[in-house]
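Sorry, any thoughts here?
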Amino acid sequence: MIEAAFTKIAGKPEIEHEAGNGLRHVAALTMIKLADGLIDAKLVLAWLLNALGVPAPFVAALVPIREAGALLPQVFLASLLGRMRARRWMWVWGTLVQGLAAGLIAFAAIRLTGVAAGWAFVVALAALSLARAASSVSYKEVLGKTVGRSRRGAVTGFAGSLASAGVVVFALLLVTGVLQGKAALAGAVALAAVLFLGAAALFAGLREAPSIPDGAGGGLELFRYFREDPNFTRFVVARGFLTATALSPPYIVLLTGDADGALAQLGALVIASALASFLSSWFWGRAADRSARKVLIAAGLIGAVAMLMAVGFGALGLFWALPGALFVLMIAHHGVRNGRATYLVDIAPEGARAGYAAASNTAIGVLLLISGAFGGALSLIGPTAALIGFAVMASIGASVALGLREVE
Protein backbone atom coordinates (compact mmCIF):
# COMPACT_ATOMS: atom_id res chain seq x y z
CA MET A 1 0.00 0.00 0.00
CA ILE A 2 2.83 2.40 0.91
CA GLU A 3 4.70 1.68 -2.32
CA ALA A 4 1.50 2.17 -4.35
CA ALA A 5 0.86 5.55 -2.70
CA PHE A 6 4.42 6.69 -3.34
CA THR A 7 4.32 5.48 -6.94
CA LYS A 8 1.17 7.52 -7.53
CA ILE A 9 2.88 10.63 -6.17
CA ALA A 10 6.37 10.31 -7.62
CA GLY A 11 6.79 7.19 -9.74
CA LYS A 12 8.28 3.72 -9.20
CA PRO A 13 10.87 3.67 -6.39
CA GLU A 14 14.52 3.27 -7.36
CA ILE A 15 16.30 2.63 -4.06
CA GLU A 16 15.70 0.51 -0.96
CA HIS A 17 12.95 1.73 1.39
CA GLU A 18 12.30 4.67 -0.95
CA ALA A 19 8.52 4.36 -0.84
CA GLY A 20 8.20 4.60 2.94
CA ASN A 21 10.92 7.21 3.17
CA GLY A 22 9.34 9.25 0.39
CA LEU A 23 6.00 9.42 2.15
CA ARG A 24 7.73 10.47 5.38
CA HIS A 25 9.48 13.20 3.44
CA VAL A 26 6.16 14.38 2.01
CA ALA A 27 4.43 14.37 5.40
CA ALA A 28 7.28 16.05 7.31
CA LEU A 29 7.87 18.68 4.59
CA THR A 30 4.14 19.43 4.41
CA MET A 31 4.09 20.10 8.16
CA ILE A 32 7.23 22.24 8.01
CA LYS A 33 6.01 24.31 5.06
CA LEU A 34 2.61 24.83 6.67
CA ALA A 35 4.33 25.92 9.89
CA ASP A 36 6.44 28.37 7.89
CA GLY A 37 3.27 29.91 6.48
CA LEU A 38 1.79 30.30 9.95
CA ILE A 39 4.93 31.94 11.36
CA ASP A 40 5.94 34.03 8.35
CA ALA A 41 8.34 36.73 9.61
CA LYS A 42 7.43 39.16 6.79
CA LEU A 43 3.71 38.98 7.47
CA VAL A 44 2.42 37.25 10.59
CA LEU A 45 5.20 38.14 13.03
CA ALA A 46 5.46 41.72 11.78
CA TRP A 47 1.69 42.19 12.23
CA LEU A 48 1.87 40.69 15.72
CA LEU A 49 4.69 43.01 16.80
CA ASN A 50 2.75 46.02 15.55
CA ALA A 51 -0.32 44.86 17.46
CA LEU A 52 1.76 44.44 20.61
CA GLY A 53 3.06 48.00 20.45
CA VAL A 54 6.66 46.99 19.79
CA PRO A 55 9.06 49.73 18.56
CA ALA A 56 9.72 49.77 14.82
CA PRO A 57 13.41 48.68 14.99
CA PHE A 58 12.32 45.26 16.26
CA VAL A 59 9.92 44.88 13.34
CA ALA A 60 12.64 45.89 10.88
CA ALA A 61 15.00 43.26 12.32
CA LEU A 62 12.65 40.29 11.76
CA VAL A 63 13.33 39.45 8.10
CA PRO A 64 17.14 39.93 8.20
CA ILE A 65 17.36 37.71 11.28
CA ARG A 66 15.10 35.07 9.74
CA GLU A 67 16.82 34.92 6.35
CA ALA A 68 20.50 35.48 7.19
CA GLY A 69 20.34 33.41 10.38
CA ALA A 70 19.14 30.39 8.42
CA LEU A 71 21.91 30.63 5.82
CA LEU A 72 25.13 32.10 7.19
CA PRO A 73 25.99 29.37 9.78
CA GLN A 74 25.60 26.47 7.37
CA VAL A 75 29.20 26.35 6.20
CA PHE A 76 30.26 25.66 9.80
CA LEU A 77 27.53 23.10 10.45
CA ALA A 78 28.50 21.03 7.42
CA SER A 79 31.68 19.70 9.03
CA LEU A 80 29.66 18.46 12.00
CA LEU A 81 27.21 16.76 9.65
CA GLY A 82 30.09 15.11 7.81
CA ARG A 83 31.08 13.30 11.01
CA MET A 84 27.59 11.87 11.57
CA ARG A 85 26.65 8.38 10.45
CA ALA A 86 22.87 8.97 10.71
CA ARG A 87 22.55 12.42 9.24
CA ARG A 88 18.79 12.76 9.64
CA TRP A 89 19.35 13.51 13.32
CA MET A 90 20.71 16.98 12.56
CA TRP A 91 17.45 17.73 10.75
CA VAL A 92 15.41 16.24 13.59
CA TRP A 93 17.16 18.25 16.33
CA GLY A 94 17.05 21.42 14.26
CA THR A 95 13.31 21.03 13.75
CA LEU A 96 12.73 20.32 17.45
CA VAL A 97 14.46 23.59 18.35
CA GLN A 98 12.32 25.42 15.78
CA GLY A 99 9.23 24.05 17.49
CA LEU A 100 10.41 25.20 20.91
CA ALA A 101 11.31 28.66 19.55
CA ALA A 102 7.90 28.99 17.88
CA GLY A 103 6.28 28.06 21.18
CA LEU A 104 8.23 30.84 22.90
CA ILE A 105 7.04 33.34 20.30
CA ALA A 106 3.43 32.25 20.82
CA PHE A 107 3.83 32.61 24.60
CA ALA A 108 5.36 36.09 24.21
CA ALA A 109 2.51 37.15 21.90
CA ILE A 110 -0.02 36.25 24.57
CA ARG A 111 1.76 37.44 27.72
CA LEU A 112 4.12 40.29 26.72
CA THR A 113 3.86 43.72 25.12
CA GLY A 114 6.17 46.54 24.09
CA VAL A 115 9.95 46.17 24.27
CA ALA A 116 9.75 42.94 26.28
CA ALA A 117 7.75 41.29 23.49
CA GLY A 118 10.18 42.67 20.92
CA TRP A 119 13.21 41.12 22.63
CA ALA A 120 11.41 37.81 23.12
CA PHE A 121 10.45 37.66 19.44
CA VAL A 122 13.94 38.60 18.24
CA VAL A 123 15.75 36.12 20.49
CA ALA A 124 13.34 33.28 19.73
CA LEU A 125 13.44 34.01 15.99
CA ALA A 126 17.24 34.00 16.08
CA ALA A 127 17.16 30.56 17.72
CA LEU A 128 14.61 29.36 15.18
CA SER A 129 16.72 30.63 12.28
CA LEU A 130 19.92 29.01 13.55
CA ALA A 131 18.03 25.75 14.02
CA ARG A 132 16.67 26.08 10.49
CA ALA A 133 20.27 26.36 9.28
CA ALA A 134 20.98 22.93 10.79
CA SER A 135 17.87 21.45 9.18
CA SER A 136 18.62 23.02 5.82
CA VAL A 137 22.24 21.94 5.60
CA SER A 138 21.30 18.34 6.40
CA TYR A 139 18.11 17.99 4.39
CA LYS A 140 19.57 17.79 0.90
CA GLU A 141 22.05 15.15 2.04
CA VAL A 142 19.29 13.02 3.57
CA LEU A 143 17.01 13.57 0.56
CA GLY A 144 19.77 12.43 -1.78
CA LYS A 145 20.34 9.28 0.28
CA THR A 146 16.71 8.24 0.70
CA VAL A 147 14.86 9.35 -2.48
CA GLY A 148 15.86 8.60 -6.10
CA ARG A 149 17.13 11.40 -8.33
CA SER A 150 14.16 11.48 -10.70
CA ARG A 151 11.66 11.80 -7.84
CA ARG A 152 13.17 14.41 -5.52
CA GLY A 153 11.45 17.35 -7.16
CA ALA A 154 8.11 15.54 -7.13
CA VAL A 155 8.39 14.81 -3.41
CA THR A 156 9.21 18.40 -2.45
CA GLY A 157 6.72 19.85 -4.95
CA PHE A 158 3.85 17.68 -3.74
CA ALA A 159 4.56 18.65 -0.13
CA GLY A 160 4.61 22.31 -1.14
CA SER A 161 1.19 22.04 -2.76
CA LEU A 162 -0.35 20.27 0.24
CA ALA A 163 1.04 22.83 2.66
CA SER A 164 -0.11 25.72 0.49
CA ALA A 165 -3.68 24.43 0.62
CA GLY A 166 -3.53 24.64 4.41
CA VAL A 167 -2.08 28.15 4.32
CA VAL A 168 -4.86 29.24 1.94
CA VAL A 169 -7.42 28.05 4.49
CA PHE A 170 -5.61 30.07 7.19
CA ALA A 171 -5.59 33.17 4.97
CA LEU A 172 -9.28 32.82 4.12
CA LEU A 173 -10.08 32.67 7.82
CA LEU A 174 -8.22 35.96 8.23
CA VAL A 175 -9.87 37.68 5.28
CA THR A 176 -13.39 36.59 6.22
CA GLY A 177 -12.91 37.71 9.82
CA VAL A 178 -13.27 34.26 11.39
CA LEU A 179 -9.80 34.80 12.88
CA GLN A 180 -9.37 38.23 14.39
CA GLY A 181 -6.79 39.99 16.50
CA LYS A 182 -3.50 39.02 18.05
CA ALA A 183 -4.91 36.06 20.00
CA ALA A 184 -5.85 34.28 16.77
CA LEU A 185 -2.41 34.86 15.27
CA ALA A 186 -0.73 33.75 18.50
CA GLY A 187 -2.77 30.56 18.19
CA ALA A 188 -1.54 30.12 14.63
CA VAL A 189 2.05 30.44 15.82
CA ALA A 190 1.36 27.87 18.57
CA LEU A 191 -0.01 25.51 15.90
CA ALA A 192 3.22 26.05 13.94
CA ALA A 193 5.16 24.93 17.03
CA VAL A 194 3.14 21.71 17.19
CA LEU A 195 3.72 21.08 13.47
CA PHE A 196 7.49 21.51 13.86
CA LEU A 197 7.54 18.97 16.69
CA GLY A 198 5.39 16.52 14.73
CA ALA A 199 7.62 16.80 11.66
CA ALA A 200 10.69 16.02 13.78
CA ALA A 201 9.01 12.90 15.15
CA LEU A 202 8.10 11.71 11.65
CA PHE A 203 11.56 12.34 10.21
CA ALA A 204 13.22 10.42 13.04
CA GLY A 205 11.63 7.27 11.59
CA LEU A 206 13.38 7.50 8.20
CA ARG A 207 15.27 4.34 7.20
CA GLU A 208 18.63 5.85 6.34
CA ALA A 209 21.70 3.84 5.36
CA PRO A 210 24.68 4.73 7.59
CA SER A 211 27.03 7.30 6.12
CA ILE A 212 30.78 6.95 6.26
CA PRO A 213 32.15 9.89 8.25
CA ASP A 214 34.18 11.78 5.68
CA GLY A 215 36.40 13.72 8.05
CA ALA A 216 36.30 16.61 5.61
CA GLY A 217 37.28 20.03 6.80
CA GLY A 218 34.57 22.46 7.61
CA GLY A 219 34.22 26.17 7.99
CA LEU A 220 35.75 28.34 5.33
CA GLU A 221 37.54 25.35 3.82
CA LEU A 222 34.26 24.39 2.15
CA PHE A 223 34.62 27.43 -0.09
CA ARG A 224 37.14 25.37 -2.06
CA TYR A 225 34.13 24.08 -3.99
CA PHE A 226 33.93 27.46 -5.71
CA ARG A 227 37.48 27.00 -6.96
CA GLU A 228 37.13 23.33 -7.87
CA ASP A 229 33.72 23.46 -9.60
CA PRO A 230 33.13 26.44 -11.95
CA ASN A 231 29.59 25.24 -12.68
CA PHE A 232 28.77 25.38 -8.96
CA THR A 233 30.16 28.91 -8.82
CA ARG A 234 27.98 29.94 -11.76
CA PHE A 235 24.97 28.37 -10.04
CA VAL A 236 25.57 30.40 -6.86
CA VAL A 237 25.96 33.61 -8.89
CA ALA A 238 22.69 32.91 -10.71
CA ARG A 239 20.96 32.10 -7.44
CA GLY A 240 22.32 35.31 -5.93
CA PHE A 241 20.74 37.45 -8.64
CA LEU A 242 17.52 35.43 -8.42
CA THR A 243 17.12 36.43 -4.75
CA ALA A 244 15.29 39.37 -6.32
CA THR A 245 12.14 37.23 -6.42
CA ALA A 246 12.30 36.85 -2.62
CA LEU A 247 13.10 40.47 -1.81
CA SER A 248 10.72 42.30 -4.15
CA PRO A 249 7.18 41.41 -2.89
CA PRO A 250 7.13 44.06 -0.11
CA TYR A 251 7.70 46.76 -2.71
CA ILE A 252 4.61 45.65 -4.64
CA VAL A 253 2.70 45.96 -1.38
CA LEU A 254 4.01 49.52 -0.98
CA LEU A 255 2.41 50.41 -4.32
CA THR A 256 -1.03 49.38 -3.03
CA GLY A 257 -1.15 51.97 -0.24
CA ASP A 258 -2.81 51.50 3.15
CA ALA A 259 -6.49 51.58 2.22
CA ASP A 260 -7.31 48.02 3.19
CA GLY A 261 -5.85 48.04 6.71
CA ALA A 262 -3.16 45.85 8.20
CA LEU A 263 -5.08 42.62 8.84
CA ALA A 264 -6.84 42.67 5.47
CA GLN A 265 -3.47 43.16 3.77
CA LEU A 266 -2.05 40.28 5.76
CA GLY A 267 -4.77 37.92 4.59
CA ALA A 268 -4.47 39.03 0.97
CA LEU A 269 -0.70 38.58 0.97
CA VAL A 270 -0.88 35.14 2.54
CA ILE A 271 -3.52 34.07 0.00
CA ALA A 272 -1.45 35.31 -2.95
CA SER A 273 1.65 33.51 -1.74
CA ALA A 274 -0.11 30.29 -0.79
CA LEU A 275 -2.18 30.04 -3.96
CA ALA A 276 0.92 30.60 -6.06
CA SER A 277 2.70 27.80 -4.21
CA PHE A 278 -0.32 25.50 -4.38
CA LEU A 279 -0.81 25.94 -8.11
CA SER A 280 2.85 25.90 -9.12
CA SER A 281 4.88 23.74 -6.73
CA TRP A 282 3.85 20.42 -8.26
CA PHE A 283 4.48 21.72 -11.77
CA TRP A 284 7.85 23.25 -10.84
CA GLY A 285 8.87 20.07 -9.04
CA ARG A 286 8.18 17.84 -12.03
CA ALA A 287 9.76 20.36 -14.40
CA ALA A 288 12.88 20.49 -12.21
CA ASP A 289 13.18 16.71 -12.43
CA ARG A 290 13.46 17.16 -16.21
CA SER A 291 15.66 20.27 -16.17
CA ALA A 292 16.24 22.36 -13.05
CA ARG A 293 18.42 24.66 -15.16
CA LYS A 294 15.49 25.55 -17.42
CA VAL A 295 13.28 26.08 -14.38
CA LEU A 296 15.73 28.66 -13.02
CA ILE A 297 15.81 30.46 -16.38
CA ALA A 298 12.03 30.49 -16.77
CA ALA A 299 11.37 31.51 -13.17
CA GLY A 300 13.84 34.40 -13.38
CA LEU A 301 12.25 35.76 -16.53
CA ILE A 302 8.71 35.34 -15.20
CA GLY A 303 9.72 37.13 -12.01
CA ALA A 304 11.19 40.05 -13.97
CA VAL A 305 8.01 40.33 -16.04
CA ALA A 306 5.85 40.27 -12.89
CA MET A 307 7.84 43.12 -11.34
CA LEU A 308 7.54 45.21 -14.49
CA MET A 309 3.81 44.43 -14.60
CA ALA A 310 3.50 45.83 -11.10
CA VAL A 311 5.41 48.96 -12.12
CA GLY A 312 3.11 49.41 -15.10
CA PHE A 313 -0.05 48.89 -13.06
CA GLY A 314 1.15 51.41 -10.49
CA ALA A 315 2.00 53.99 -13.14
CA LEU A 316 -1.45 53.60 -14.75
CA GLY A 317 -3.25 53.75 -11.44
CA LEU A 318 -4.55 50.18 -11.83
CA PHE A 319 -3.99 49.36 -8.17
CA TRP A 320 -6.70 46.70 -8.22
CA ALA A 321 -4.47 44.66 -10.57
CA LEU A 322 -1.42 44.65 -8.29
CA PRO A 323 -2.43 41.44 -6.46
CA GLY A 324 -2.29 39.69 -9.84
CA ALA A 325 1.29 40.87 -10.34
CA LEU A 326 2.17 39.69 -6.84
CA PHE A 327 0.61 36.30 -7.59
CA VAL A 328 2.72 35.89 -10.75
CA LEU A 329 5.83 36.97 -8.86
CA MET A 330 5.24 34.38 -6.15
CA ILE A 331 4.83 31.68 -8.80
CA ALA A 332 8.25 32.71 -10.11
CA HIS A 333 9.69 32.69 -6.61
CA HIS A 334 8.52 29.13 -5.99
CA GLY A 335 10.05 28.14 -9.32
CA VAL A 336 13.40 29.57 -8.21
CA ARG A 337 13.18 27.72 -4.90
CA ASN A 338 12.30 24.40 -6.51
CA GLY A 339 14.84 24.74 -9.29
CA ARG A 340 17.73 25.75 -7.05
CA ALA A 341 17.10 22.93 -4.54
CA THR A 342 16.86 20.23 -7.21
CA TYR A 343 19.83 21.52 -9.21
CA LEU A 344 22.08 21.69 -6.16
CA VAL A 345 21.31 18.12 -5.09
CA ASP A 346 21.90 16.84 -8.62
CA ILE A 347 25.25 18.59 -9.27
CA ALA A 348 26.78 17.79 -5.87
CA PRO A 349 29.02 14.69 -5.81
CA GLU A 350 27.93 11.81 -3.59
CA GLY A 351 28.97 12.58 -0.02
CA ALA A 352 29.54 16.27 -0.73
CA ARG A 353 25.93 17.45 -0.88
CA ALA A 354 26.05 18.93 2.60
CA GLY A 355 29.25 20.82 1.82
CA TYR A 356 27.84 22.17 -1.44
CA ALA A 357 24.62 23.22 0.30
CA ALA A 358 26.51 24.87 3.15
CA ALA A 359 28.91 26.79 0.90
CA SER A 360 26.06 27.86 -1.37
CA ASN A 361 23.73 28.95 1.40
CA THR A 362 26.40 30.86 3.32
CA ALA A 363 27.32 32.77 0.17
CA ILE A 364 23.63 33.44 -0.51
CA GLY A 365 23.20 34.71 3.05
CA VAL A 366 25.81 37.37 2.34
CA LEU A 367 24.32 38.15 -1.08
CA LEU A 368 20.86 38.51 0.48
CA LEU A 369 22.18 41.21 2.79
CA ILE A 370 23.80 42.99 -0.16
CA SER A 371 20.67 42.65 -2.32
CA GLY A 372 18.48 43.84 0.53
CA ALA A 373 20.67 46.91 0.97
CA PHE A 374 20.49 47.48 -2.80
CA GLY A 375 16.69 47.40 -2.72
CA GLY A 376 16.60 49.57 0.36
CA ALA A 377 18.76 52.21 -1.31
CA LEU A 378 16.54 52.22 -4.40
CA SER A 379 13.46 52.47 -2.22
CA LEU A 380 14.65 55.90 -1.11
CA ILE A 381 13.68 56.96 -4.63
CA GLY A 382 10.47 54.95 -4.42
CA PRO A 383 9.11 51.37 -4.68
CA THR A 384 8.99 51.67 -8.47
CA ALA A 385 12.75 52.18 -8.63
CA ALA A 386 13.32 49.20 -6.34
CA LEU A 387 11.10 46.95 -8.48
CA ILE A 388 12.87 47.97 -11.67
CA GLY A 389 16.21 47.26 -10.03
CA PHE A 390 15.04 43.83 -8.87
CA ALA A 391 13.62 43.08 -12.34
CA VAL A 392 17.07 43.75 -13.78
CA MET A 393 18.59 41.45 -11.15
CA ALA A 394 16.18 38.63 -11.98
CA SER A 395 16.90 38.98 -15.70
CA ILE A 396 20.63 38.81 -15.06
CA GLY A 397 20.09 35.70 -12.93
CA ALA A 398 18.21 34.00 -15.77
CA SER A 399 20.99 34.95 -18.19
CA VAL A 400 23.66 33.50 -15.90
CA ALA A 401 21.61 30.29 -15.55
CA LEU A 402 21.66 29.88 -19.32
CA GLY A 403 25.33 28.91 -19.04
CA LEU A 404 24.79 26.21 -16.40
CA ARG A 405 25.58 22.61 -17.25
CA GLU A 406 22.51 20.44 -17.86
CA VAL A 407 22.55 17.59 -15.32
CA GLU A 408 19.12 15.91 -15.28
In short: The chain has a mean pLDDT of 82. Residues 2-206+216-402 form a domain with the Growth Hormone; Chain: A; fold (CATH 1.20.1250.20). The two ends are 29 Å apart (CA to CA).
